[in-house]
Structures
1.
Amino acid sequence: MKKKALKVIVPLAFWLLLWAIGARWVDKELLLPPPASVGRTLLALLGEGSFWQSVAATLGRITAGFLLGAVLGLALGGATAGWGWCDLLLSPAMKAVRTVPVVSFILLLYFWLPSGRVPVATAALMALPVVWRSTRQGIAAAEPALLEAAEHYRLNLWRKLRLVYLPAAMPALCAGWENALGLAWKAGVAAEVLCQPKWAVGSALQSAKTYLDASALFAWTAAVVALSLAMEALARRLLRPWREEGRG
């Protein structure tokens, strides 16, 4: 337990010290506020109801977008792995989604959707191709010998999925879901910065930038990092049994 704590405390202390030295060297709070100033601002934000309202709204949007992208990616990945014509039709679209800059999607979606829904759609679009690809890779990892045995014993589709495809696909799926969650979080907050819904972490970041409040900007950024790490840790914990089941 102590070793785990040291692995967190030592790097954190190192970077905070480096930050403090840099802030003292720059000597301009507008460019690089010291850690103490950012800490005081963050503590003040934690005591405001609007902070928690913005955090809750952002978490709701990004979670909804991630789940939507994950479900679509799982369904389309399965269809692509099962039917060649689906692969022919969907592969170019998924490659396009992966390569087009996220800002382009945000601006396009802003024309079509209310500002509060743009982050949801953006997060879903970023998660979709990652889960789609991991689903394809996972299904392709199924052992040919097990597939032959399933055919020999005439297992129905549901039993094939449960006994052959799902265990083979789980490691790739879990890795894909974790990566997709990270991308959905970054893209969702970026969409909030541009679209500025009423209650949103991204809107608060944009407001701090507009008013040249560097301490608030750093404080909100620290909150974004903390929330992202917490979501990823929760996802890893929830997916651990599934990953171990797949490896077993």
2.
Amino acid sequence: MARASLDKDPNDVAAMFDDVAQNYDRANSVMTFGFDRRWRIATAQALEAGPGERVLDLAAGTGVSTEEYARDGAWCVAADFSLGMLRGGAHRGVPRVAADALRLPFADGSFDAATVSFGVRNFVDTRAALTEIARVVRPGGRLVICEVSTPTFAPIRFLHRTVLLRVLTWLGRRVSSNPEAYSYLAESMLNWPDQRRFGRIIAESGWVGVEWLNLTFGVVAIHRARKPDADS
């Protein structure tokens, strides 16, 4: 079974997610104690996708988040470079596209908004991916990213790093079709930048108006930004 490392070789990451696709959504719900549903709803509220808008859901996996974002009438496409994950979402009524975040198969300004949920930390080059996402979003368009983050309250931060991640890894190994993948996922969580540092990375990638909202004491954070207008 495939297991990626922190160098995030794209082939290794794609193979790893192919292996976990079968039980991925169930494993996520178990590992997050059901909070994944709340985080999806909060992300959809931050995205504010309305009728007639075009939304790119990148690293969408099986499309469970894409389906959520399309509820208010937006046209949403699920894009991922794991074919196994895309096949796992075949039962969902959203378009699915195989796509590499560093070379998106879309024209400039194709989307009104782009979003990534719990996938940006798997990109081999975060800044390059965020710059590429900006290319396919229209001027003035929106970016919304939901990702693991750093709890702001010191006792919770300590428990999160020393206890909770071990528990999540233990649970993931028991419900996943590729138990070793969850060792990588725990490592990637521990090595991910905190809210402010990630916000700086987004800004350095060409986005403006960067802001974030902490969820569940900062265990997860939603970052939101927009692409500069054409005349700015």
